[in-house]
Specification:
The structure is a single chain. The chain has about 525 residues and is of the alpha+beta class. Helices cover about 30% and strands about 15% of the residues. It contains twelve helices and 17 strands. The N terminus and C terminus are likely disordered.
């Protein structure tokens, strides 16, 4: 991992899903060497994840049926489903020539690295908080910090330095580990942990990451037991050390490893030791992200990620000097209209479309002039929906405290707007209507009466809980699937606020030199 200078302002000592995997490539003849090209052939095979009658929770982007190797957990954890092959532009009735031209026209410059240099800022159509001097946190903010800390402390495993992804479930993905690092850093800079305490916790986490048994010796398995640091999942006891890796999860973790190294240079060597062991280049193929999934009978190397999450996670690989130009381009996107608002959607299979990655991008890396930056449009959609109905709706992906245990609450999905689905794409009746983590993120980004209503709702939802709950179901009943991603994002959002509404790490990904007049035509 390569570190770049980043100047931090003065800080007071008083201070995160499966995502869709596309066309599979057979790995029968694919080498694990970083210099090898992917030579696998196309396959139309799809995989299904066995159903389970036991409770399941989703805390990451991987696809497995987990097994708690410690024998102490009573919760089974069903991961995200593998999707069928990518739907091509021709199948969508879109000219492949036009799509290819758009991708070619999306000419990326040389790889930019971690930087705090000035860059073009996109002007929001809504009033956003302006970067300012450090902001004093309110009584309600401090209350939320205490509640989020309770989750971290209760679910922290002192042996491994890993945090349970969902309360009562001792497993975590690399996405969850990234959220955990963010939460620990936030708790230090928010004044809950001392520097020594935070460093001790992070060092333990990093030591476990250095020692992780890697899937086929290539990259971290999709999930690990947080008590033992050993692979978990259906193939965890086999010589492959699991059933594959998730590029999206790894991308988020790379973002937070870079952030950790910038704030704590004393940990940079330990972080270098982690990434030097990982064959990061194997997660990038033809300029986009690829994950691997192994079942008992076959192994597939598949494109991973859809609009929003793909671009967000790709920046972690760009920080590692990987070519992610295809992932950052508009080739597989088009415009649709939802409630009179124009948004981009992904034209490939299972195009889950939630607000999460756009909020993560703005708070962690900055609200930049990027073609795929849809934060304003999504804020407008939610705000206008409330203005018309007087019912608060914040659609995001979240764990559920009832079946099907996880939901993608989609802005738009296969021609239908505001649709909640299971990871397999099946509509669910009582999905989550209000996500506390995304609502709170929006409340620190935008400055108007609606954002303050979101803020107050999250506070009220949390008053009677030791940790911050996940949100509200459509029936207005509480969703109490306490999890690391909810509590981490709220902590990082408060860190963003205390920093004077400045992104945690101001990073500009590789992009066009000028996008002001760019129009994507599909």
């Amino acid at each position: 991992m390569k570190w770049f200078p980043y100047t931090l302002p003065h800080l007071s000592t008083a201070l995160v899903l499966g995502f869709v995997l596309g066309t599979p490539l057979s790995l029968a003849n694919t080498s694990t060497n970083t210099t090898d090209k992917a030579t696998a052939t196309r396959s139309s095979e799809t995989h299904s994840v066995p159903s389970t009658e036991a409770p399941s929770f989703f805390g990451g982007r991987a696809v497995t049926q987990a097994i708690d190797d410690s024998k102490t957990s009573i919760i089974e954890f069903q991961r995200r489903s593998i999707s069928p092959a990518i739907i091509t532009p021709e199948q969508q009735g879109i000219s492949q020539t036009n799509a290819d031209e758009d991708a070619d026209n999306f000419a990326l410059g040389h790889h930019s690295h971690i930087t705090s240099a000035k860059h073009s800022e996109k002007q929001s159509i809504h009033r956003m908080y302006s970067p300012s001097e450090a902001t004093e946190l309110s009584r309600e903010d401090l209350l939320l910090i205490k509640k989020a800390r309770y989750y971290i402390d209760r679910n922290w495993n002192s042996t491994t330095g890993l945090i349970d992804s969902v309360q009562g479930y001792s497993h975590a993905t690399m996405w969850d580990v990234g959220s955990s690092i963010g939460a620990i850093l936030a708790l230090e800079y928010l004044g809950e942990y001392t520097r020594l305490q935070a460093n001790d916790m992070l060092e333990k986490t990093l030591t476990t990451l250095v020692d992780l048994p890697l899937y086929k010796g290539i990259l971290p398995n999709r999930q690990y037991n947080t008590k033992t640091g050993q692979p978990s999942g259906s193939l965890s006891q086999t010589k492959t050390n699991g059933d594959g890796w998730s590029a999206l999860d790894i991308g988020r973790l790379l973002i937070w490893l870079n952030i950790a190294a910038s704030y704590k240079p004393e940990l940079a060597d330990q972080i270098d030791a982690i990434t030097e062991q990982w064959n990061i280049a194997r997660s990038v193929h033809q300029g986009t992200l690829f994950g691997e999934h192994k079942s008992k009978t076959s192994t597939s190397y598949r494109q991973e990620g859809r609009l929003g999450y793909l671009q967000y996670a790709a920046q972690g690989f760009a920080m590692e000097e990987q070519d992610v130009s295809e992932a950052l381009g508009p080739k597989y996107s088009k415009h649709v209209t939802v409630d009179d608002e124009e948004v981009y959607i992904d034209i490939r299979n299972l195009p889950y479309f939630t607000t999460d990655p756009y909020v993560l991008q703005a708070i962690e890396l900055g609200y930049h002039d990027l073609w795929w930056n849809q934060l304003d449009a999504l804020y407008s959609l939610h705000k206008n929906r409330y203005d018309k109905s007087q019912k608060l709706t914040i659609f995001a992906e979240d764990a559920l405290s009832q079946r099907p245990w996880f939901a993608y609450n989609n802005i738009y999905f296969y021609g239908k707007s505001w649709l909640s689905t299971s990871p397999g794409g099946k509509p669910i009746e009582n999905g989550q209507a209000f996500s506390n983590k995304v609502a709170f993120g929006l409340s620190v980004l935008y400055k108007d009466s609606y954002s303050q209503l979101l803020y107050k709702t999250v506070v009220n939802n949390s008053l009677n809980n030791r940790s911050i709950p996940t949100g509200l179901f459509k029936a207005n009943s509480p969703n109490t699937a306490y999890n690391i991603n909810t509590n981490s994002l709220i902590l990082v959002s408060l860190w963003y606020k205390q920093r004077g509404f400045k992104p945690i790490f101001d990073y500009m990904p590789p992009s066009k030199t000028d996008t002001s007049n760019d129009e994507i035509k599909l």
